[in-house]
Amino acid sequence: MTLGSLLAAVLLFAGVIVLFKAVRMVPQGYEWTVEAFGKYTHTLTPGLHFLVPIYQGVGRKINMMEQVLEVPSQDVITKDNAVVKVDGIVFFQVLDAAKAAYEVAQLEVAILNLVMTNIRTAIGSMDLDESLSKRDEINTKVLLAVDAATHPWGLKVNRIELKDIQPPRDLVDSMARQMKAEREKRANILEAEGFRQAAILKAEGEKQSVILEAEGSKEAAFRAAEARERLAQAEAKATELVSTAIAQGNVQAINYFVAQKYIEAFKALAEAPNQKFVMMPMESAGVIGSLAGIAELAKESMAGQAAKNPPPLPGRGA
Amino acid sequence: MRWDWQVVGWAALALVLIAAETLAPGAFLLWLGLAAAAVFVVVLLFDVPLLAQVALFVVLSFISIQVYRRWFRDRARASDKPTLNRRADALVGQVVPLERAIVQGRGRVQIADAYWDVAGPDLAAGTPVRVVATDGMTLTVEAVG
């Protein structure tokens, strides 16, 4: 091999290496920084680029796509001294490749530490109950803090999400017990309320029925009194009629009624099937007297009649 | 006209480089291949020393790539998504309510889940603003209407 061909081989080798260093193709989704003798000059966007060989070189290759970082699980103490395990995820995107390349070393470690400390701050200012129920609020709080802090690094933190907030086992158990007791309390109260309502309704019904009954007997008494009043009126009227009749006629007329009643009563006594022995009242003589009164009445009326128009002759009367 | 190992070598190199381009597309092994093909033609027609052949190949490679950059890239089809991977630029033209009032030229809006710092004239919170420009991190806004 001649010296000429050796030189040719070296030239070929060097030429190809320089060419590969000078012609750079940046893929979509990335941006590469360019350094001229170690100093940042500009950023290459996706596409084919030609660098001045030797003088310029590619520095950092920055991923411009949105990226996800897992925040590892960590113990956090709440305001009321409960220790909870918290983990999460961060979505971020580089907006300024140069800043992300040179303003911060170990970008991802920096983001993770920022997020973890901010989660601790946010949850540390809340009670356990609050931190469990206000996850959105914590997310927003941490997001705003981390976003502001990462601005100098050319980053946009789009979203921070707490994946899991896990209280210790025994605390979870007592929370479950508390919930169960709460529900049982509600059930018992509802049941008691039901019984009370039922008892009240029942008593009310009984009261109503007693009132109605009393009202009924009151009405009945009123009607009975009215009936007695009417009866008394009727009797008074009858008595009045009789007395006017007597006043116009003879006093002896009354004896007619009494004797009639007497005889009716005797008839009833005599007809009674098991009555063989009849006691006569002491005033039987009085009764007989009244009979005598009737006879006298009859005599008188007959005499009166005879005086007005003489009795018809026997055998010729109608 | 001659057919010796140099001529055949350049022809082979040209074919291998062009074939390699199809395996690992980077739009620039192709230009090395074209340079090799040109050297092959020169060597086939003229008697050139080996050193000159290699020098010619290296120079032609640079030239072909530069020609590609100057000539073809200007005619290349533009991206139909020019704001790809440029989150802030993609927001230009959007109208959003101010989440925090602009005080002394700085405020904040919420777009999707992210909060963006905005710069613009002092406005009260809730005022709808239009994004007119961006410097990558901060959105420049103006009041709508």
UniProtKB/TrEMBL annotation, chain A:
Which membrane topology describes this protein? Single-pass membrane protein
Entry keywords, A to Z = Coiled coil, Membrane, Transmembrane, Transmembrane helix
Give the CC-aspect GO terms.
Answer: plasma membrane; side of membrane
Task: List locations, semicolon-separated.
Answer: Membrane
InterPro entries associated with the record: Band7/mec-2_domain (IPR050710), Band_7 (IPR001107), Band_7/SPFH_dom_sf (IPR036013), Band_7/stomatin-like_CS (IPR018080), Stomatin_HflK_fam (IPR001972)
- Keyword Protease, does the record have it? no
Q: In this entry, which stretches build a coiled coil?
A: 217-244
Is Thylakoid a UniProt keyword of this protein?
no
Q: Which PROSITE patterns match?
A: BAND_7
Pfam families recorded: Band_7
Which SMART domains does the record match to this protein? PHB
Record-annotated Band domain positions:
21-179
Family listed: Belongs to the band 7/mec-2 family.
* Name assigned to this protein: Protein QmcA
Q: Which organism is it from?
A: Agrilutibacter terrestris
TrEMBL record, chain B:
List GO terms (cellular component aspect).
Answer: plasma membrane
Span of domain NfeD-like C-terminal:
88-142
Key words, A-Z: Membrane, Transmembrane, Transmembrane helix
Provide the taxonomic classification: Bacteria, Pseudomonadati, Pseudomonadota, Gammaproteobacteria, Lysobacterales
Give compartment(s).
Membrane
* Residues that span the membrane, as ranges: 36-65
* One matching Pfam family: NfeD
The answer to keyword Calcium applying to this record is no
The way it spans or sits in the membrane comes to:
Multi-pass membrane protein
According to UniProt, the name of this protein is NfeD family protein
**Where mainly located?**
membrane
